[in-house]
Amino acid sequence: MSSPVSDIDLHAHLIGQQGGRRALNTPVLVVDIDVLARNIQSMAAFAAEHGLALRPHAKTHKSADIARMQIAAGAVGVCSAKLGEAEAMANGEVDSILITSPVVTAPGIERLIALNQRIGDLRVVTDNPTNVQALMNAATTEKPLQVLVDIDPGIRRTGVASPEAALALAKQIAAAPSLRFLGVQYYCGREQHIEAWADRVDAMKKRTAYLKGIVDQLNAAGLSPQVITGGGTGTHRIDADLGVLNELQTGSYVFMDRQYNDCDLTGDGVTPFETSLFVDARVVSANTPGMATIDAGFKAMATDGGPPTILSGAPEGAVYHFMGDEHGAIVAADATFAIGDAVTLAVPHCDPTVNLYDHYHVVSHDTLVRIWPVQARGRSR
Amino acid sequence: MSSPVSDIDLHAHLIGQQGGRRALNTPVLVVDIDVLARNIQSMAAFAAEHGLALRPHAKTHKSADIARMQIAAGAVGVCSAKLGEAEAMANGEVDSILITSPVVTAPGIERLIALNQRIGDLRVVTDNPTNVQALMNAATTEKPLQVLVDIDPGIRRTGVASPEAALALAKQIAAAPSLRFLGVQYYCGREQHIEAWADRVDAMKKRTAYLKGIVDQLNAAGLSPQVITGGGTGTHRIDADLGVLNELQTGSYVFMDRQYNDCDLTGDGVTPFETSLFVDARVVSANTPGMATIDAGFKAMATDGGPPTILSGAPEGAVYHFMGDEHGAIVAADATFAIGDAVTLAVPHCDPTVNLYDHYHVVSHDTLVRIWPVQARGRSR
Fold first, then answer.
1. Which of A6, A183, A200, B28 is 20 to 30 A from B11 via CA?
2. 3-class DSSP state for residue B164?
3. Which residues of A touch B296 (CB under 8 A)?
4. CB burial string B230-259: b at 16+ within 10 A, e below
């Protein structure tokens, strides 16, 4: 029995070859490094111009390599959705991390405190007095844990449900010697994808007035929040105009999936960001006129955002349908396909799609320039 | 900076402890070894009783450990959906594998031939004369590649589209010195989930008559198929009754997800299989009366089959809603939840859910008995 060779070993041989992208085994997750770098630069410049700290959300890319690019461009650190994602970022030399979901269980809190010892600047949110008590008991006065109060903007997912609860929680944190009250988090998830700019502005004005009221109460109580963090790719310009947040958590701008490409991000229809993330696939069966089966299905793309957009490999107007775990159909009347034909897709929802892959294949034009591991893939706990 | 410890390292310490399941970090993919073993035994007994070869589909579990349990119980080998999945099974000492999707690209065929040299009994399907030519050119006469003709039962996913095309392809394979014509594959994917037994029987009678016609033509042409493989958990009893298939590819019976639990598998409403696969989650936020947020969202469960069923941790009638990548809502009027509360879910569609996890946490009652890697997770190419 000869020794096994993985397709990643085989792909490594293609690095540096012009056209190497077209020789990859498929389906494969591809990121265009030139576009990615421009997106990162553009958001960093926006934040700097508006005097906002930028703490991009790593739940989008799950990559310490991309996190380090963001920090090199001016980001103060990153956000992580879960503890395991934060651990993966820390393993990749990222030293400032905000965990944006509460960590509530005993084994989770044990790992959280260990991570607080490992890196320079760990921050975590909470929305519950029992949780604050548990964090206080586990943390040490030698290196207090930095805690933010998570405020629910009406999603009912996480966050305190009233200004009174926010104030009480901030007081409880500030009084705990092993904790440090750092500020508040306010993530308006539902508003990010409101397609019309004017509707999004209206919604954010209402939401932000509520946040402002809480900040005013905290200030009056002598608990001024040093950090007021939130925002996303869909609202970052509005958040900057409204002037309450002082830190932005934008994530998807690095890749610009179909969901965000459907949104006007600036009010003038000109988006400063471009699509940098793709799935390259190939035709594996072509026995029916006007359609072809490609090798990318539920296991190649998350389905929660609907079907992907076909960018190349099929005539304009062609559509994709999921055909099970392993396959998708490209339907295009009058088109002729042959097995092996290359098809490039733009993904509908980037975060859970990235989570399906172990590697990014990083390209510049059609040259494979490197292969990055998706360090935080699967770190959902 | 102290060295990182993964949650899997921490979980390993819980093996053998009664109640260890309840101390796991969540979300976690849990398989009940006792139920799993009964399901495996039950299908093996059914196949033996009916004189059918059993070649369970490993795309369901992606686990060489479960594959070896199936083979120990009498299976002749396994099916794999993709080449990478087959390579993972081979790395896990599985020696007989049928790849149920065509392998059409040059780098794929190179890996396929390497795998054929590594294991005793590799089989692959094809549906295209150009592909047969490429396989023939790559394979060697020292160890001919075993090839089956994939026949489309009307899904238009993969498979030849007519009896004439099936016959022509079988002739082309049989004439190639480096290939061996082994038989045909016929997977009626659409019929597996027809809920009413009588409707499923009617549909399979029609579909199987079409297959029988092709088999008759192959026999008449001196190309008798040694292997006639297909079937699934939803139709295996009907397939056995109809008597054309001689090998069953059932997959989901090992786990019994919600989609299959909604089907009558035997015609009398008594299913011989039980649910063995679960996602254990926990409440992370509980600030809204009548609902709670748990730590399992798009990254913990595939969404293509709808929401999961809540098995424990919430009152009867409680429902789950996806709340983004990391979270889900449990809605149950009048219920009271506290952070840290355990919730167990039955997954809607097992195959792509398993693909989200690196490990199975194997339990017997509430004791964690071992941790298995999901060896073929992410092997979509």
1. A6
2. helix
3. 380
4. bbbbbbbbbbbebebbbbbbbbbbbbbbbb
Across-strand partners of A356?
A: none
**Strand B277-285 to B342-346 pairing:** antiparallel
Residues of B whose CB is below 8 A from A348: none
Which domains are delineated in chain A?
7-30+272-373 (2.40.37.20), 33-261 (3.20.20.10)
CB-CB neighbours of A49 under 10 Å = 9
Residues 6+ apart with CB under 8 A from B141: B177, B178
Residue in A closest to B108 by C-alpha = A25
Residue of B nearest to A130 (CA): B339
Could you tell me which residues are beta bridge partners of residue B368?
A: B363
Judged by CB atoms closer than 8 Å, whether chains meet at A128 and B285 is answered as yes
Residues of B in contact with A87 (CB under 8 A): 4, 6
**HSE of A201, CA atoms in CB hemisphere, 13 A:** 13
Residue whose entry in the numeric block shows the structure tokens 């002729």: A336
For residue A276, what are the contacts with CB-CB under 8 A and spacing of at least 6? A31, A32, A35, A36, A39, A254, A255, A256
Q: Which of A1, A169, A287 has the most B C-beta neighbours within 10 Å, making it the best mutation to test the interface with B?
A: A287
Give the residue on B whose Cα is nearest the Cα of A129.
Answer: B339
Residues of A in contact with B138 (CB under 8 A): none
In angstroms, what separates the C-alpha of B107 from chain A's closest C-alpha?
6
Residue B368: DSSP 8-state: E
Distance CA B169, CA B227 (A): 16
Using CB atoms, pick whichever of B117, B152, B285 lies closest to residue A158.
B285
Q: What are phi and psi of A319, to 5 degrees?
A: -125, 155
Report the length, in residues, of chain B.
381
What region, left, alpha or beta, does residue A344 occupy, with left being phi > 0 and alpha being psi -120 to 50 degrees? beta
| Maximum Cα–Cα distance across chain A | 73
B225: CB partners within 8 A, 6+ apart: B148, B170, B181, B182, B183, B184, B215, B218
Give SS3 for B137.
helix
Cα–Cα dist B89/B91, whole Å: 5
Say if the Cβ atoms of B158 and A293 lie within 8 Å: yes
Nearest CA in chain B to A358: B378
Percent of chain A with pLDDT over 70: 99
pLDDT bracket for residue B3 (50, 70, 90): low
By CA distance, what is B105's nearest residue in A? Answer: A340
Number of helical H runs and strand E runs in chain B: 11, 17
> How close does chain A come to B295, measured CA to CA in Å?
8
- The shortest C-alpha distance from B27 to chain A (Å) reads 6
What confidence category does residue B1 fall into, taking pLDDT thresholds of 50, 70 and 90? very low
How far apart, in whole angstroms, are the C-alpha atoms of residue A356 and residue B359?
15
Judge residue A216's burial from the number of C-beta atoms within 10 Å of its C-beta, 0-12 exposed, 13-18 middle, 19 or more buried: exposed
Q: How far is A49 from chain B (nearest CA, A)?
A: 31
Which DSSP string corresponds to A308-371?
Answer: PEEEESS-TT-EEEE-SSS-EEEE-TT----TT-EEEEE-S-HHHHHTT-SEEEEEETTEEEEE
How far is residue B266 from each of residues A37, B199, B201, B238, B255, measured CA to CA in Å? 57, 13, 11, 8, 17
For residue A317, the one-letter residue type is G
Q: What is the reported pTM?
A: 0.95
pLDDT of residue B334: 87
Nearest to residue B26, comparing CAs of B302, B293, B309? B293
Please, how many CA atoms are within 13 Å of residue A313, restricted to the half-sphere of its CB?
Answer: 28
